[in-house]
Design a protein that fits this description.
Elements (H helix, E strand, L loop, with lengths): L2 E9 L4 E4 L5 E15 L4 E15 H10 L5 E15 L2 E15 L42 H7 L19
Parallel strand pairs: 4-6
Antiparallel strand pairs: 1-3, 1-5, 2-3, 3-4, 5-6
Length: 173
């Protein structure tokens, strides 16, 4: 079974970051997705069951997930669902895993700060007049949000980070 699924839930375990023997980054954690229904007799929402999923993210998504997510935070994720039956001696069970394709915080419950990774300048071989592609000046993936480096990653070239207005600011991405 290899179906796409979208889950909204809470990060249930601290994300763990590892590397495969080939050096590919991988981040794993569990997510808890609660279910509720409206009980007309009680005139209230009733919590029913909670489903738990094992989540794996690879490569750049793994790095970003590890540095961004914490236990208890509400997230939205989409990925490939795998349901596997397992046996170990006299024990049997079913493992439900999701290989994440995209994930992020659920903004219904709070705010987050986005820091875009710097991309290397593109080399154009189609014209003799080479122009460099825009890249975030001073961007660092591991810069803490609110830091000068993180702020510089969002500021367009020639713009003062302190003088921009949200409504009229141009985003460089």
């Amino acid at each position: 079974m290899n179906d796409s699924i979208t889950i909204i839930g809470n990060v249930a375990t601290d994300p763990e970051h590892k590397r495969t023997s080939a050096g590919v980054p991988i981040t794993t954690f569990r997510i808890a997705s609660g279910q509720r229904r409206y009980d007309r007799a009680a005139d209230a929402w009733v919590e029913t069951a909670t489903n738990f999923y094992s989540v794996s993210a690879f490569r750049g998504l793994a790095d970003h997930a590890f540095h961004s997510l914490r236990r208890g935070e509400r997230v939205i994720l989409t990925g490939k669902l795998r349901v596997r039956d397992w046996e170990s001696g006299d024990k049997r069970g079913t493992d439900v895993e999701i290989e994440a394709e995209a994930l992020g915080h659920d903004l219904l419950w709070g705010t987050t700060t986005f820091v875009k990774d710097a991309r290397p300048a593109a080399v154009s071989s189609s014209t003799s007049d080479s122009t460099e592609a825009w890249s975030a000046p001073g961007a660092a993936a591991d810069a803490p949000s609110g830091s000068a480096v993180a702020e510089a990653a969002w500021t367009a070239p020639g713009e003062d980070a302190g003088s921009r207005e949200l409504a009229g600011a141009e985003t460089p991405f």
